[in-house]
């Protein structure tokens, strides 16, 4: 059957109603808000130990100060672990006014907070309350006085040198990242200390770059002793970390094929441009004809040279991004049509190095400024260390998310390779992914961009030769999501949409060297382009192959639908992905999305519609507090004709994506926008919001809002990617008059610090992809045309679609 272009929903004409977001609350107990009588003895013992450590650490901190260094202010910080979630809207001002504590950073999804002691007199109320509770618990003094807010505290401690300094002599490197603390209520203190630090660095000839907007300094070639002095004397530093990064590749196979054997024949065409942030792209390969001859985008040598190892790295990444699966389908021979041109952005020349995050971001903005049509990037250079479970977002991730949002760009980021996997396994074991050291690497936790893991498929013909349970399964070396809400939230309050990777794509696999040993076996790996013309091709595996292959799909979409926004490309790719052939045992099902995301990408399913399979795209915006209703009208033949079945005649798959301006200092509201959608009965906005016992608007009992912001006291973190699937019966179409209602709602979180909410936008763009497909024994060939006739839609890029149709005739 002929391919057809997707349909665009004309938002302002299809929109039926704009209502308000409303939540209906039941009556039952809230298990997260229960307040049983505290165990005073247990708390008193913990507080006694915490107080002793706090006072001791305070003395050590004071003695470490160098009086010869001119710093205008000393600031102490207290880290507090709470029994539950610290509700900013309710408690932020209470803690500031009562205890003199200014919240500056919230992690562990608001169960841990870092406070600056803004008022030492008021802070004495905190200390006195701690002493009172110790007296109550250990001396059994029922009359002991303490402020009731202290009962919410689990532990507290002074922020010390060991908390701040997170590098040692081995991991120091030549680039060190300092994250500074923002003091909204005491900006004069913050600015004065920062200025004193700048003077100190200048006086001691320490090279640095500073970015006040993102609260970051980068120091170059600094010694460990110098870092210790800085951390001990300038009380505006939250952390000092290394920026050691590496290209994502487990090893080189060195199984070459000595001729390229193909020619790119459409290098003169206008094609989408992809930025390859890697080790350079070799001009001694056929890629030279589609690579911009611009050598200005580099941090480490000529970007048009790739000398990483024997075979390069950026070259193979660029080939997969521009050519996709073409080389593999033609056995690397003959004429090849590229899907994209390439801009080489060289970050490191070798396999490993210390990155200046600020310079990477500057290169991205520079590239976007010089090539405004550039909106797709590939980044396969990640931090070498994995993220700890539920670790907060880094400055690097924050800036990449901010860049994507501000420039309507999409970076395809590899989730990272676990180099230990081969030595720690002798078979394919999904339980291995439960180990924390398999967690993803920064910046693969980026929310506005697209994180890609590796499926075991190696793009070769014949039987699957890898160790995985199937080629659609995640390779054992691919990394997994670091977020585990089960450790914090009850089952009912977890956000099922919050996970990485977004999708997986072919990356090759290990093979069995013998029945009890796995190794890098060439028959399970992927053939990729080498930068060395004497070798031609080599065998590789890795998530660094999966990410550019997925970016290639975005380029294909750009060719056919050039005006689509980046978040729409992301929604299309996710909507087309599938977990159908990735079936985990029951015991491992909690790992499914955390290792495979929304599944393996499907090129044809993503790019085209056809007569019986229709993809409709909605690009619109929505205000905070607004709920929009769009009718989806279905053709009459679905209820009037004999279709051979009555249940499950249609399958609907829908995905919502949106980008946002990320917020620092608060892990819970890094994404501060709740946005959700679903498909309901033919009801109004108010009816959809009514409690179910009064009026049930659900088409199916399991089909509700894609995510919830109902719980205001202990909210779960929000996701900016959501996907739903459901089947449609004839009876549902009849009862709803052949019309369902697509509803979208948005609400800005109430957990944002006052200093951040003042200028935050209240209108948000979103992209929603809705796929409707017939599931009949004999499809009718009528769905596309009849859906088009009865809804306010248009064929995207209709001129090209009609030209293709003429060509088929």
TrEMBL record:
Instruction: Please give the superkingdom of this protein's source.
Output: Bacteria
Instruction: Identify the catalytic residues.
Output: 278 (charge relay system), 313 (charge relay system), 544 (charge relay system)
GO biological process per UniProt: proteolysis
InterPro entries, from UniProt? Peptidase_S8/S53_dom, Peptidase_S8/S53_dom_sf
Q: Which residues form the Peptidase S8/S53 domain?
A: 273-599
Keyword annotations from UniProtKB, A to Z: Hydrolase, Protease, Serine protease
Q: Which Gene Ontology terms cover its molecular function?
A: serine-type endopeptidase activity
Q: In its keyword annotation, does this UniProt entry include Methyltransferase?
A: no
Q: What's this protein's family per the entry? A: Belongs to the peptidase S8 family.
The name on file for this protein is S8 family serine peptidase
Identify the taxonomic lineage of the organism of origin. Answer: Bacteria, Pseudomonadati, Bacteroidota, Flavobacteriia, Flavobacteriales
